[in-house]
Amino acid sequence: MRSWLVLAALVGCGDNLAPPIAKFEIIGHHDLGARGMSSALAIVEDTVYVGTRIDNRGIAIIDVSDPAQPTAVGEIPGVVGMSSRELRAVPDLNLLVVLSLRCDPSLHGCSLTGGEGEGLKLYDITDRHAPVLAATYPIFGTRQRPRSPHEFYLRRDEGRVLLYVAAPPASPALEVIDVSDPRNPVRVAAWDPTQAGLDPDGSADDILHSASVSLDGTQVYLSHQLSGLLVADVTALPAITLVTPPAAALDFSPPGTVGPHSAVQVPGRDVLLVTEEVYPAPYGTGCPWGKLRTVDVSDPAAPVLLAEFGLPENDPARCGMPFDRIAFTAHNVTATEDLALVTWYAGGLQAIDISDAANPRQLAELRPEPIPSVAVEDPALGGSPVEMWSYPVIKDGLIYVVDARNGLYILRYRGLWEEQVAAEVFLEGNSNL
């Protein structure tokens, strides 16, 4: 708890920070059994599914019919050595998609043994509280050319449900999979950065980390950590055609720092919100931590950096302080037309005014009171008391978000642009549902 008090005392104002003019209200909270190391969430009607970054627990099933009293009603069992890292759901297809990957004993605290093939698991959730495995889709490489699924974007368009799965480092780093028939997933396209002239150096960070799709479905935004942000045309799948020349990729990182983590389009605008996830050594480059950037893609051949947003802890002058293993780094974004909701690890959940994309400013933040203890503290982050992690999901005007350490939070946002949040029936940054 002492480290938490130190962190709280250091909160101040940066260049784009001002005294909060809005707030998050906690409507409900579930600590998920104080297990720690939780991951993404998916919501179907009154049921929330929460994955895990490690293998000691499975996917929690939480009833949120009363948002003030979320209740655990079941669990999809976990598999030794495997993480249920990413989840999405398609309610009318009774479909839950889970991305499973082998988790690391050092980075995550997983078992040295066990595990099964990496890839996607598709569950029939006709009974919301008792999912049944309907199909699997393996994603694999070889010992010489390893691949591992990491993130995916779910796109529904013209009768199809497509998953854009980033699976680096070996070719193909991107697969597009049709799951319109949940019992028969089919690959419809594959792409690799080397096909477009990128020349990865083989380092652990030189990978295609994630891919997201424009809201009109014509472009895919490729977040390649060391080669930068690029845009590709996907209007004629299976063809994936790079629009941004590699030399024009947006690379905002100085040497030795990880670049784009993920990119989310602002609804109705040619603006992307791009995060940079920086881990402490030995798993990353450490402080200074990653920020949020706004990027103009009105000309997809030449993305332009508009602005960056950081917290006081993102100031390089604070590097080397006693808490330098506690990461204050931007992670996942969900955006309305004028408001960005950003999970920021130890920086909590941020509400950022993006009405002027060249001048983002903080409106509110939530750094929740940490629960006393968890079964597994994050081995990579030195016991960080707050780890806001998932893509926030807006459902019926409420915000659902997972803190990897402290569990599921259900929030109401009050302040500038609150009407945009209140009007959303469903919105998440990693799908177009």
Briefly summarize what is shown.
By secondary structure, this protein is mainly β. Helix content is 3%, strand content 39%. The two termini are 39 Å apart.
The strand line-up of the biggest sheet is 1-28-27-26-29
Basic shape:
globular
- The overall pLDDT, averaged over residues, is 90
Distance between the termini: 39 Å
What class would the helix/strand composition place it in? mainly beta
Cα-atom radius of gyration: 20 Å
Number of strands: 29
Counted by DSSP, the helix tally is 2
Q: How many individual domains? A: 3
Approximate strand percentage: 35-45%
- Helicity range: under 10%
Point out poorly predicted stretches: 1-14
Q: Let me know the largest β-sheet.
A: 5 strands, antiparallel
Structural write-up:
- The chain has 433 residues and is mostly beta strands.
- The protein has 3 domains: 1-30 and 254-433, no CATH class; 35-138; 143-249, no CATH class.
- Helix content is 3%, strand content 39%.
- It has 2 helices and 29 strands.
- The protein has helices spanning 2-9, 418-422; strands at 23-30, 38-44, 47-52, 59-63, 71-76, 82-90, 95-102, 119-124, 132-138, 151-157, 160-166, 174-178, 186-191, 208-213, 219-224, 228-233, 241-242, 262-265, 271-275, 292-296, 304-309, 332-335, 339-343, 349-353, 361-366, 393-395, 398-403, 407-414, 426-428.
- It has a 5-stranded antiparallel sheet. Strands 2-3-4-5 form a 4-stranded antiparallel sheet, with no helix packed on it. It has a 4-stranded antiparallel sheet with strand order 6-7-8-9, with no helix packed on it.
- A hairpin with a 7-residue loop joins strand 8 (119-124) and strand 9.
- The longest helix has 8 residues, at 2-9.
- The model is unreliable at 1-14 (pLDDT under 50).
